[in-house]
Amino acid sequence: MPLKLTRRHFIASGTALATLGTPKVYAAGFDELRARVNEIQLLPEKYGQTQIWGFEGSAPGPEIRAVQGTQVQRRVFNDLPDPTSTHWHGIRIDNAMDGVAGLTQDPIQPGESFDYGFILPDAGTYWYHAHNRSFEQVARGLHGALIVEERSAIDIDHEEVLILDDWLVDPETAQIANTFGAMHDLSHAGRMGNYITTNGTYNLTRNVKRHDRLRLRLINAANARVFQLGLDGLEGWIVALDGMPLAQPKSVDGLLLLAPAQRIDLIVDVTAETGSAGHIVQLDRNESFSQVAFEVTGEGSSARRENPKPLPPNAYTKPDLASARNLALLMEGGAMGGMRGATMDGQMSSMRDMMQAGNFWAFNGAVGGMDGPPLADLSLGETVRLKITNDTSFPHAMHLHGMHFHEIEPNGSLGAFRDTTLLDRGEVREIAYVANNPGKWLLHCHMLSHARSGMMTWVDVA
Ligand code: C2O
Ligand code: CU
């Protein structure tokens, strides 16, 4: 890793630190979760306050933390000027609690509330976010961490939940740019922010001791940014992806890609010298920035530990590829994609007609959404093998609700077990899963502007 790291914010160098205070942590049980408008010090203080939409008025919202197998109950109040809903991303949940406005529930109208209650079947790092007009509501701040603890303790000294985000902010006014649904964002890489934060601050710093062992739970809450991360002064192992433990910890020996909605759990040992700092490094256009700094204030134990053990596995049925039903999803459209038209609301439409409706992408030749027919009607317990072809000029992060899937390795074996998979432009990836959760489950690009403009479908598991 390059050693000359800078902390940056979006225009000039900052003077004071922006602090949001420690988010409230609720015990499992019934609680209010109020989505509301608030003014917070998002930017360094010389810029003034920013109006956000946040759960309990903060962005990220309060961390929800509970033990595997227990229940979470939240009454979500909508104090926003717009209808909303709340999705519990990555949880193998009852369909009625999935929080997809327009598919699994009606949106919660301003002044109204909705009761979400669900069991947490799997330990891991999850998150929750608005799921109505997500391309605007998530960008305004409606998201937070949902942490499901293992039933047994993990051998670490500290744990940090790190929510990476980017914001599109006008530095003159300190306000979030009101350009939601801009044609360029819909048709290109999505809404990219100009101000990058971790847990709502641009210079998150933690004090650690040398040789401390940390568990870092990284969550990408950005609308479209794929974070490219590295470690400096930290030796790390990936222990889980999208909440699900790897069979064996995998040592970090290069860049980590964290696409929108994805999570990576790392175990890291602090190897930086006392008086210096370790960093999570973010790479952007050949420059490196410190995303999170770990200042080493002293010596913990005098020696390194053994390599970490795997996390306890979650109980999940492995797909049997031999009996799988084969499905295909062709992703087309967008700028420089060469698509000439697609079916929209059942009618063949030109690209120009599509654009007029703010649609730029198609799945299997049709502008996607929740109103059209499902990609597939699946019977409960059926195994699916889905070939996704990204025939566009942009990367996409495809997310399936309700069930995790395996990425299939080029050699045909079952690879990483995730809920969101990143496909680079031109890339083809097969995924496989057992459709063992009944209901209507969305499958969409988590570049949220893309989901808004055609990259959305669903499967019906009956
Ligand atoms: Cu994290 Cu359909 O979303
Ligand atoms: Cu996309």
From TrEMBL:
<feature type="domain" description="Plastocyanin-like">
    <location>
        <begin position="161"/>
        <end position="272"/>
    </location>
</feature>
<feature type="region of interest" description="Disordered">
    <location>
        <begin position="297"/>
        <end position="318"/>
    </location>
</feature>
<keyword id="KW-0560">Oxidoreductase</keyword>
<dbReference type="InterPro" id="IPR011706">
    <property type="entry name" value="Cu-oxidase_C"/>
</dbReference>
<keyword id="KW-0167">Capsid protein</keyword>
<dbReference type="GO" id="GO:0030288">
    <property type="term" value="C:outer membrane-bounded periplasmic space"/>
</dbReference>
<keyword id="KW-0132">Cell division</keyword>
<dbReference type="Pfam" id="PF00394">
    <property type="entry name" value="Cu-oxidase"/>
</dbReference>
<keyword id="KW-0946">Virion</keyword>
<keyword id="KW-0479">Metal-binding</keyword>
<dbReference type="InterPro" id="IPR008972">
    <property type="entry name" value="Cupredoxin"/>
</dbReference>
<dbReference type="InterPro" id="IPR045087">
    <property type="entry name" value="Cu-oxidase_fam"/>
</dbReference>
<dbReference type="InterPro" id="IPR002355">
    <property type="entry name" value="Cu_oxidase_Cu_BS"/>
</dbReference>
<dbReference type="Pfam" id="PF07731">
    <property type="entry name" value="Cu-oxidase_2"/>
</dbReference>
<dbReference type="GO" id="GO:0005507">
    <property type="term" value="F:copper ion binding"/>
</dbReference>
<dbReference type="Pfam" id="PF07732">
    <property type="entry name" value="Cu-oxidase_3"/>
</dbReference>
<dbReference type="GO" id="GO:0051301">
    <property type="term" value="P:cell division"/>
</dbReference>
<feature type="domain" description="Plastocyanin-like">
    <location>
        <begin position="38"/>
        <end position="152"/>
    </location>
</feature>
<keyword id="KW-0131">Cell cycle</keyword>
<dbReference type="InterPro" id="IPR001117">
    <property type="entry name" value="Cu-oxidase_2nd"/>
</dbReference>
<feature type="domain" description="Plastocyanin-like">
    <location>
        <begin position="354"/>
        <end position="461"/>
    </location>
</feature>
<dbReference type="InterPro" id="IPR011707">
    <property type="entry name" value="Cu-oxidase-like_N"/>
</dbReference>
<dbReference type="GO" id="GO:0016491">
    <property type="term" value="F:oxidoreductase activity"/>
</dbReference>
<protein>
    <submittedName>
        <fullName>Multicopper oxidase with three cupredoxin domains (Includes cell division protein FtsP and spore coat protein CotA)</fullName>
    </submittedName>
</protein>
